[in-house]
Design brief:
The chain is mainly alpha-helical. The strands form 2 sheets. A two-stranded antiparallel sheet has the order 1-4. A two-stranded antiparallel sheet has the order 2-3. A hairpin with a 2-residue loop joins β2 and β3. The model has no long low-confidence stretch (mean pLDDT about 90).
Length: about 280
Amino acid sequence: TYFIIAAVGLSFVMIGGGIDLSVGYQMSLVGVITAMCMTLYHFPVWVSVGLGLLLGTFLGLVNGLIVTNIKVFPLIVTIATSTVFQGISYLISKAQTYRNYPESFLWLTKGDVLGIPIDVMLTILVVLFASFVYYKTNFGWNVLALGGNEEAARLAGIKTKGMKVAVYAICGFFVAIATMIMISKSNTTSSAFGPGIEFTVLTAAIVGGISFMGGEGNMLGLVTGVFILAVLGNGMQLAGWGTYAQYIVKGLILLGAVTFDEYQKMGKRTKKITGNSVEKTNA
């Protein structure tokens, strides 16, 4: 469930034409802060969770502001901020592990309504909400336009800078929600929790049809991509494949998905050029 929610958050950035590789250490920092608030400072659960969600949104906002103002490729920016978030996370936690959360927090993954686990219900709501935003709101269409052609979107009157900041902030918010589910499910966290997830959700997004170049994607495909990777990972574990072998397979899948995505993009560009040439000839 937390993989799907984190992937939904990342989808806003990717469909908007960006990338965020700091997701893993965003989860690390948000998880550590939330856990410390509950276990060390004994804040109420709702206050701790609220602070975690605000922090996640703020981290995404920072990424968005840097990307739009410095105008450096998002890949470089988010690698840099990932390192910063990593350092802050370990500096605050001092590499300690936090566990034994209040029961009201563990209810997030242990509780259920009508036999449906709370985290599953929350995941379904997040996916439905994202689908509604993409296909039924002006904001969603603007995100698709931004990723499809940023200059054309700007000329059409879309505030592209504000949109970029917004999608990174939204990504941070959903990543924070995913973090709450992750640490509730494990009933423990440390600064090592989270890193590595960014590549899994990135691969799932591309396998699920979200273009690496932006402007395309849907939530059903995204969820399908997460399930494909989950089934594949489970199958490799049952087959006795080691962790390092699984890394190789996942890396090859990511490489293959990006290559296929670029191949599709090239095919569409070729058809468009051919079509334009035919129209000019006929004219």
